[in-house]
Amino acid sequence: MNLITQTALRQPRTIERLVQGVMTSDGAGVKLTRVLHGALQRRLDPFLMLDAFDSDDPDDYIAGFPDHPHRGFETVTYMLAGRMRHRDSAGHEGLLESGGVQWMTAARGVIHSEIPQQINGVMEGFQLWLNLPAQRKMNAPWYRDFSAGEIPQYATSAGATVRVIAGSSNGVEGAVTRALTEPLYLDIHLPADVTFSTALPDNHNAFVYVYRGTAVIDGTQITSRHMGILANTPGSDGVTVSAGNDGETRLILVAGKPLNEPIVQHGPFVMNTQNEIHQAIVDYQSGVFG
């Protein structure tokens, strides 16, 4: 693992607000926590949704997500623990395993399923929805699985370890880049009292979600299962996060360049106008998605 020197920041971001996720279920009854939802879509543009799932009870996840459609955005599934099989109408199939990432661009339309490939044990991870710009919503679908070993990672001299799923952090390029939304997606592990910093453009919307322990950003404590939305302060050059003193902290950091386009969502379809939503429904019902 590469040992890097962290970016020295002049004006790190602060926390604008804390958000606690809402317990819900989706698919065929999978229990999850919806962290980023419709009310936050404009504030966290280009991100549309973040779900966190974590259970060792098969009844909470075993039925998975049978065939369902998407149009107009990308889904990024990051599996911390467990195994999930993906199949879609564009002919893609893959097995997502612990530490791996599934990146799917639904674009003009795809029907897919995500079915657990285990009957016991822990299933834990995240699914993030990333909006597509209007000019790319009707492109061809795309899909790729990244195994755990294909996700670039690095360590700092202080003891932080970082997996770079998307974007670039401290000079390390991630597995995926996107030119227009410029997403950054990091999984950060911090031993007790360790501090980590990375650069962020001040006009990118960003948040952290703590899934183990406690994180501190500019004096604000973020406990496990909470999101901290980072303030877009003009002139800010990044974020500095520290672990609490009571054990290891794990969190994801997500940031991206806002599209500043209309967001019209109807369930699994996210377009720019109501007419486009209507067309998506018609296309799906008439079999255009495959």
What does this protein look like?
The chain is mainly beta and 290 residues long. A hairpin with a 3-residue loop joins strand 3 (22-26) and strand 4. An eight-stranded mixed sheet has the order 1-14-15-18-25-20-23-2, with no helix packed on it. The protein has a seven-stranded antiparallel sheet with strand order 3-4-5-12-7-10-13, with no helix packed on it. The chain has one helix and 27 strands. The protein is globular. The model has no long low-confidence stretch (mean pLDDT 96). Helix content is 4%, strand content 51%. The N and C termini lie far apart (42 Å). The protein has one helix at residues 274-285; strands at residues 2-4, 15-20, 22-26, 30-36, 47-55, 65-70, 73-81, 84-88, 93-96, 101-105, 110-116, 123-131, 142-146, 153-156, 161-166, 168-169, 172-173, 184-190, 195-199, 205-212, 214-217, 220-223, 226-230, 238-243, 249-256, 264-266, 269-271.
